[in-house]
Amino acid sequence: MILATYRSSRSGEVYEIRDASNGPYCTCMGWKMSKAQPKTCKHLREYGAGANVPAPTVPLAQTVQGERPRDASAPAAMLAYDLAKAGHSPWGDPRWSAEVKLDGMRVLMVMGDRPRFYSRSGLSYQYPWMADIKLPAGTILDGELVPPGEQSQYAQGSRVDLEYVLFDVLAVGETDLRHRPWSDRRKAVELVVGQLNHPRIKATRLLGIPDQSAAEKLMEQGVEGVMLKLVTSQYESGKRSWSWLKYKMTHTYEVVILDMEGECTSDERKLLGWKGLRYGYADGRGDFLLAGSLGVTGPPEELAPMLGKVAEVKGYGRGESGALRHPIFLRLRDDKRPEECTAFTQLS
Question: Domain boundary at 52, 70, 94, which?
C-alpha cells in the first residue's frame, strides 16, 4: 500500500513510501543505497516526523482495498502473448491492426455512482483528477496510465502529470461489447474519448496494417513497443490470447551483482528467508553504483557466490539511472571483471 508520495525538487520525479511486512520503505535511490539498519532516507524521516513536516504531495494512486485479496468487483483484463512465441507473423496482414504500446500501469475503469479504477491484478485505486468523469453506469474502460507522450518513461520513475490512454471498451452502460470484434470496440474508444473531452484522457495511436520496419523505427525513438491485434478478435476477459500480440525490442546488458537485499515478493519465500539480488555498475573510480533489482531470488547461501560477479541480463531498455526495464537474468560472465562493467555497457 502506498502511504505517501514526495516529489523531487530537482528532477520532478515522484517517490513513494510503501508499506511492507517489515515496515515502510521508499522507492527513491537514497533508500536503496542506504547502509543503515533498517534502511532509511530523507522521505522516510520526514514521513516519520508526522505533523511537524509539511504535508506530502497528494498520492497519484492510493490503494484503498489493500494488497490482498483481489477486489471482487474488478473486471478481468485480456492479456497478450509475445510475438516471438506466436506460430505466425501478422506483419503486412490486413486482418491485423497495429497500435502504439505504451509504458505505464494497466488500469481498468468501472463506472458506477462514481468511477472506480483497478489494476490488472485487481487492486483498487483512486485518481482524484478523474473523479468527476461522467459516463453511463456499467461502462468499463481498459487503458494505460502513462506520462505525457509516447516515449517510455514510466518504468524510469516518471509519475508527473499522468494521462489515461484508452485502448479498449468492454461495455457502455448496460451494453456489453466484449463479444463484439475489436474494430467495433475501437470505434467505441474514439466515441468515449470524444464524449469525455478531457485533456488527460486520450486514445492510443493506431498505426494501421502491421509494418515491422516502421515498428522498429518507433522503438528506436523511445517507444516501448507495438501491439498487434486481430481486427475480428473478441475481448477475452482473464485470458492471454493469441489474438493480441506484443512486440518489444530487447537488448542484452552486462551488470554487476552487488548485494542480496532485494525485496522478495512472495510471502512464502519471505518466510523461508529468501533474498533477492540487486545489480549496478562500476563508476570508473573504484566504486559501484546500485541501479535496481535483478528479479533472482533464493536462499542466501545459494546467492552469496554470485555477489561481485558480472551477469549478462536481457532488458527492454534502460533509464538514466541505469535501471533496466523487466531485467531477465541470462548467465554469469566469469570471463569479465566487475571493474569493466561500467554503466550503459550494451551488448546488442
Answer: 52
